[in-house]
Design goal:
alpha+beta, 2 strands, two-stranded antiparallel ribbon
Amino acid sequence: MGFADLSIAEIAADYNVPVEDVLKLCDELGIAYKHPQTRLALEDVKAIISQLEQSRNSEPIAD
């Protein structure tokens, strides 16, 4: 398994969501981490981004 060289904190910043939300996703998806600066495996990053994109696409559009 390769590494994406992205941390939980970097993903949160890239998607403009709180770090706690990404940590919660890690817990839900069974992704192990020690702290927000933990570098993640490529497959784990893909899973997190997929969930973030799904959430973003299902939010109602504000007027």
